[in-house]
Write a structure and sequence with these properties.
The protein has one domain. The chain is built from eight helices and no strands. Helix 5 runs antiparallel to helix 6 and helix 6 runs antiparallel to helix 7. It is mostly helical. 72% of the residues lie in helices and 0% in strands. The protein starts with 22 loop residues before the first helix and ends in a 10-residue tail after the last helix. The chain is elongated and about 70 Å long.
Length: 264
């Protein structure tokens, strides 16, 4: 699975002489339930952190809306903490969710690397932009500088969402879960329509009115849909962790692996 070296007849509990990958991992297909349990656990932890960030964001929004009089002058601090916690949780979650699989070795998956790099860049720029808006309001940094950072953050946010969802589709193919994968792709198309609707408002006229309507409805539907899909994906990942732990526990207990040819 890692380098293509022919492992037929090799010791199931040994390692590939070419790349060092455990032979046992190459004797089964690439479904997550046969993958390294530690790696799948990190994927599940990443999904959990992303959901934690979203839940915390919503809870703090409810607090701000329901206790506005109590918060008073500290509203800016709660708002900063809400946005910062969401950004940091998503950054940590994406970092864990794009952890390299042990069998990759020196041949990393390009889709995973792309998603990780975009997520890290988006997180760093997002924190910087949030600090700029919160702590440097009185500074004369120039309107175009702020607009430029805001535009960059928007592009990075959309790119991060697309890249991460494509990587999630790769993982879903290893569960397998064709229905959930198809829904992810539909959401990507909806995201494109949402962005087109937002940009249509720039041109004015009838395009602006229909663009605002399309963008508003698409944003609401996509927001709810993405959260639901994330919860389903998280539950599937946690089930895959249990299956992987169970499978390799049985393998070690029986001291045998599924038969068949294998490649490293």
């Amino acid at each position: 699975r890692a380098c293509g070296y022919n492992l037929r007849g090799g010791d199931p509990h040994g390692a590939c002489p070419e790349c060092g990958t455990a032979v046992g991992f190459s004797l089964v297909d690439d479904r997550l339930k046969f993958a390294d349990p530690g790696w799948v656990s990190r994927l599940a932890a990443g999904s959990g952190w992303i959901l934690t960030g979203l839940i915390l964001y919503v809870l703090l929004w409810v607090v701000m809306a329901g206790f506005d009089d109590v918060i008073g002058g500290w509203r800016w601090a709660v708002q900063f903490f809400r946005s910062a916690s969401l950004t940091l949780c998503i950054l940590l979650g994406c970092w864990l969710l794009t952890t390299g699989e042990p069998v990759e070795r020196n041949r990393p998956d390009r889709r995973r690397l792309m998603a990780r790099r975009i997520a890290v860049t988006s997180g760093i720029v997002g924190i910087g932009y949030l600090c700029l808006l919160t702590f440097y309001r009185g500074m004369d940094v120039g309107l175009w500088f702020v607009v430029g950072i805001a535009a960059l953050q928007t592009v990075l946010d959309v790119s991060e969402l697309v890249a991460m969802m494509l990587w999630v589709c790769v993982l879903l193919a290893r569960m397998p879960s064709p229905r959930l994968s198809m829904q992810m792709r539909v959401v990507l198309i909806g995201l494109a329509l949402h962005e087109l609707g937002q940009w249509a408002g720039v041109f004015g006229g009838a395009w602006a009115r229909w663009g605002v309507i399309l963008s508003a409805w698409a944003g609401l539907i996509l927001g709810v849909w993405v959260v639901v899909l994330l919860f389903v994906f998280d539950s599937r990942l946690r089930a895959a962790v249990d299956e992987a732990n169970d499978f390799w526990a049985r393998v070690r207990g029986q001291n045998e692996l599924p038969r068949g040819g294998a490649r490293g």
